[in-house]
């Protein structure tokens, strides 16, 4: 392909694209009223929505999570209270766990119950109702009778200090006073009066179940990290009332901090409780021993026995101190063992009573850490959650290990105690010479010292634990309190108005385009060009007056000019200097064959040519009626069946032109096809061609019968009538097939009944004044004629 060919193709494509665009624009312009109505409707709807839609405000706050493990005295004493999930989740930060806690359903449920958020009060307006915060002059308390309640709305009107309550369906209508319970099926409502401005239009109250309200609020709540390297959490909450939204978010954060602090003091509380119990027991035992010792000394009148066996006692004291230490450890081990014997009772082992052995102390600390981690996970997950189950398994494994370790450690202590006792027994036997009273005195002294040491130890640990509890601080703190944006973030009025304008243009455009796309009838030029290659020789506009004859001697209407354009185009189609036979046919009845035939004959006669109109639609003749003749008058059928009738007897003049004549169909025959096959019909056509310049045959529709095919062999050109908004696109296949099979040698289309109110056949109307057609059709104007003939002649070649 050469450069010139490429340029030619580009020009052709550009021209076709331009025509398609012009066609699309013309379709839209012709339906401008649809676009105006669409814009008015959608823009009005967008304005009303933006004006009266319930606004939504965004409430924001920030919380800092302090992940340090040291600092306060409480952190040093109760290191096990510092929660860290890094081992469990393989994370360097527990901020994500705090996010899960903040977003937990339990925390939101506590917030709803604390503020009574499942009872929503709306203040009525002229068009919409808005939720109030604390502006209404009353409060509503809900006293539930059943576990689950149904969502219900009530209308409230307050007049003269009385409350009138009714439901939306009108089933309930109650009058009550303030602080007087209104008894309903599932709950009671108690209204309490408070200072505030009364809304004369009344109020609406929506009562929801707690679960339903929690679900609604959780959908509007979100927590995110402000940065991947930061431990600051950004809390956002969407709510229609900014003041109430701030209150809800602030309450949720307060409950979170309170829960966080409670978790940290849990170990200290457990330790204090254990110490108090042990102090009670040791105090009772010490009091008993001291009483018995005092009584013994009084009965035996003993004042000082130290000098009686000082040397021996000094020797015994060393082993006794060792035995005391071992018995203290054994006592602690026995008490701690009670905490881990029962697998179903998960109690924290007081960290203050760690045994001297560092291995067992570390095991106890790890066990306590697992218990605290499990309690905190329970806030975010259910018991059947794999994360919680995994924590339970770790706790059980640690407990089993502790049990085994303590059994082994206890046996070792018992063995060591037994050895110490054995050594003491040996020393005791050596003091057999010491009086019996001195030995009893020594036993009391030993037991008293043991209990006294244990008592002092418990007092010391109690004070340390109390100090740790009071110095424990929260690991999270609020950086920014809950604060609402000044303007609502939705509805976004500019965006809604733009959407309204967009839909106001898109929906009508889709309607117009869809209507055009789904139409099965011929509406415009592209419908013809895409369904047939048969050239268009003329285009006739709509006949609003409904008259049969639109072409006269002095007629200057648009329709008459269009028929003159058709006449001009036919001069280039037909051979000059000889008689020409034209056949007018169509797909079906009603497309305007007779109307085209009559006016084409009239416009040809005005040029001084001698024209004959021949009505050969033998089944449904209409041409003769249009020219004012009786359909049963003498005509073609009479001539063919008669042997004596001459041609002059069937030729009749027309009322509109002295150069135009007509042969009517005559009576409707039973066998019209056989009449057209007769030799007399052939002789008639030959005779008429000698007497007239033009013979125009109005034949039957070719889409219904084959009469037109029989006539076509006598014709010089066939005019196929297509009517806008009447002829089906599929019917163009008839002329396509006849042309392809060469049953019609020279076929041309005539478009009839083009309506200006639809933007014209080509979308631009008929133009203005004499000589201007409509759009850019074939032969409508002098300027357009060469384009038509270039296409026509190129096809003939």
TrEMBL record:
Give the catalytic activity.
L-tyrosyl-[protein] + ATP = O-phospho-L-tyrosyl-[protein] + ADP + H(+)
A GO molecular function term, named singly, is:
ATP binding
Name its cellular compartments.
Cell inner membrane
> Which SUPFAM superfamilies would you find in this protein's record?
P-loop containing nucleoside triphosphate hydrolases
Name all Tyrosine-protein kinase G-rich domain ranges: 439-515
What kind of membrane protein is this, topologically? Multi-pass membrane protein
- Keywords on record: ATP-binding, Cell inner membrane, Cell membrane, Kinase, Membrane, Nucleotide-binding, Transferase, Transmembrane, Transmembrane helix, Tyrosine-protein kinase
- Lipoprotein listed as a keyword: no
Instruction: List cellular component terms (GO).
Output: plasma membrane
Q: Does the keyword Transmembrane helix apply?
A: yes
Q: What class of enzyme is it?
A: transferase
Residue spans crossing the bilayer:
29-50, 495-514
Location of the Polysaccharide chain length determinant N-terminal domain: 20-114
Enzyme Commission number(s) of this protein:
2.7.10.2
Q: InterPro entries from the xrefs?
A: AAA_dom, Bact_polysacc_biosynth/exp, GNVR, LPS_length_determ_N, P-loop_NTPase, Wzc-like_C
Question: Boundaries of each AAA domain copy?
Answer: 583-708
Q: Per its UniProt record, what NCBIfam families does this chain match? A: eps_fam
Q: What is this protein called?
A: non-specific protein-tyrosine kinase
Q: What is the lineage of its organism?
A: Bacteria, Pseudomonadati, Bacteroidota, Sphingobacteriia, Sphingobacteriales
